[in-house]
Amino acid sequence: MAKAKTVYRCTDCGAESPKWGGRCEGCGEWNTMVEERVAATPARARGSAAPAGGAHAGTAGATRRLRDVDGAESQRWRTGLGEFDFVLGGGIVPGSVVLVGGEPGIGKSTLLLQVAALLTRAGRPCLYVSGEESALQVKLRAARLDGGADEVELLSETALETIAATALERRPAALVVDSIQTVYTAELEGAPGNVGQVRECAARLMRLAKDTGIAVILVGHVTKGGGIAGPKTLEHIVDTVLYFEGDGTLDHRVLRATKNRFGSVDEIGVFRMTGGGLVPVANPSELFLGDRAAPASGSAVTALIEGSRPVLLEVQALAAKAGFGTPQRVATGYDGRRLALLLAVLERRAGLAFGTLDVFLNVVGGARLVDPAGDLAVAMALASSVFDRALPADAIFLGELGLGGEIRPVAQAERRLGEAARMGMRLAYLSERGVPRSVPPGLRAVGVRTVADCCRTLFP
Ligand code: TYD
Ligand code: MG
């Protein structure tokens, strides 16, 4: 048995230190250093022991020209779960490692069980390793899924060595490990979920994937801070990192790629959680537009670019007479400081007074609005609420606001207008300088120069 030594490791950034400290020297976080025992001799999987002969000892490896490397990049396995394939960049790449992170209860196990079932049904057997739930629990979940998941091979196990040996023997197309925080290797001391364990197990599963061509999908829980529990280093090891997010109270879920060695990042996939599992939402605009049958004051629509897709989004504002004290400013799905800035611009450049009003801003459907192109929509929603007059229900607003009240052109205006036209919008207010040469049929573009200009046009 190898001699063990003790090190201290930060649970946030993974920095290692020989002595304990209240604060991590790597990232500066407090109370994140935990004790970890590591084998003093290098673990087998990390490579063969270096022969004696100094720092440069070792045997030469075989090299080859890139053109002689086999395999086409284009090989991907489509699962048939449209939004999942889309976020991955067209499907699962054999031999890749995908990490799916998300808060407990968001639907990671459901998503991956569906993926495993679809792949299995398409003739690509999957091995689903559950370290969190009993076989019966997984079966009960499977029974609720539309289409069922009866053919998926299940292994209830947390020992990495057993998982790897089973995968090597069964040779599934894909291996799902739910979750990486429950897996441990006997070669390291320390409980499952501790940083060293998580990292070592992920690294070994990575090696398994590269050696065998099995696609490995890891589930990772998210910490309070929003990162995947344990070290950032886990994100460096894997090929692709997906985050599964959503508002616990709403039934839609967003899958987002934050790292992808085989595709673009910032793509999103939208799903709805139903009684029969997750259903892809092919038309996210419908979800974020809310129920716009009866136009009310304080509501405005804008178009964002999410990844490569334009999505329409509704913002709602309510400006109401404040009680005693400092008026409230409450923003949901929107940056509070940006709201303060837009209020100041409206006050100075368009003469609207918010000093005695409580202001509430809400982005519909639990979405987040960070694109500055949404400024004009937020400003017009606020103005509409102050005047208590509804904006045209079939209008969208695109524009970034400058401190002088000027409206700036937005990137990819044509694609945003295209989506607006597709969703039945007939009017688009945007910067005079940013009206694209071709506007989709059925849509009229109105160029406006300043926020005051826009207010005068809409509320004469
Ligand atoms: P789960 O996949 O267990 O989440 P995670 O693995 O991320 O912790 O799913 C959690 C919730 O999903 C659970 O509260 C029940 C709900 N759910 C449905 O609404 N419909 C379904 O078909 C299934 C299987 C689960
Ligand atoms: Mg789960």
Description:
- A hairpin with a 5-residue loop joins β18 (400-401) and β19.
- 41% of the residues are buried.
- The chain has a 9-stranded mixed β-sheet, sandwiched between helices.
- The chain folds into 3 domains: 1-40; 75-282, P-loop containing nucleotide triphosphate hydrolases (Rossmann fold, 3-Layer(aba) Sandwich), CATH 3.40.50.300; 287-458, Ribosomal Protein S5, domain 2 (2-Layer Sandwich).
- The protein is 25% helix and 26% strand.
- It is elongated.
- α8 (336-350) packs across α9 (375-387).
- The chain has 460 residues and is an alpha/beta fold.
- The structure holds thymidine-5'-diphosphate and magnesium ion.
- Residues 102, 104-110, 141, 144-145, 273, 275-277 line the site of thymidine-5'-diphosphate.
- Thymidine-5'-diphosphate is lined by residues 102, 104-110, 141, 144-145, 273, 275-277.
Proportion of helical residues: 25-40%
Overall strand count: 21
- Supply the CATH architecture of the largest domain: 3-Layer(aba) Sandwich
Strand % is 25-35%
Radius of gyration: 27 Å
Low-confidence stretches: 43-50
- Main β-sheet description: 9 strands, mixed
CATH H-level superfamily title of the largest domain? P-loop containing nucleotide triphosphate hydrolases
Q: Can you tell me the overall shape? A: elongated
Mean pLDDT comes to 87
Q: Report strand order across the widest sheet.
A: 6-5-7-8-4-9-10-11-12
Give the CA-CA distance, first to last residue.
84 Å
Listed once per kind, the bound small molecules are: thymidine-5'-diphosphate, magnesium ion
